[in-house]
Write a structure and sequence with these properties.
Blueprint: E1 2-6, E2 14-18, E3 27-30, H1 35-45, E4 48-50, E5 55-59, H2 60-67, H3 76-89, E6 93-94, E7 99-106
Parallel strand pairs: 1-3, 3-7
Antiparallel strand pairs: 1-2, 4-5, 5-7, 6-7
């Protein structure tokens, strides 16, 4: 799954979730926006925040709410829960487990 922060209408960055059925990976893809713009967009969307240029924190609840309506498999919820448990077992959580730490990568469209 990919959380994208890309330039939107009127150059206001947009946050969206892509590849929601691929729960074997999770990262933040940032397009041609500054770290400050990406952080502000994530916070405004209620999706999370950047901690630095390489790492972000994504709200588990917000991610689920944004991704689940796009899911195409009946077992998506169970697989999402398993992804969160896996991340917790690896120590990739933040905010007392309410957030997941994610790597920041350039967006394909950047």
């Amino acid at each position: 799954m990919i959380i994208e922060v890309i330039g939107g209408a009127d150059e206001v960055p947009e946050v969206r979730v892509a590849d929601v059925d691929d729960l074997t990976r999770l990262h933040l893809a940032v397009g041609a926006v500054t770290d400050e713009e990406a952080d502000a967009a994530l916070r405004s969307a209620g999706m999370g925040r950047l901690t630095d240029g390489d790492t972000g924190v994504v709200s588990v609840a917000a991610l689920r709410a944004a991704a689940e309506p796009q899911a195409s498999t009946a077992d998506w919820g169970d697989r999402f829960d398993a992804m969160v448990i896996f991340a917790a077992d690896k120590g990739w959580t933040a905010d007392d487990g309410a957030g997941l730490q994610v790597h920041v990568e350039p967006a394909a469209s950047a």
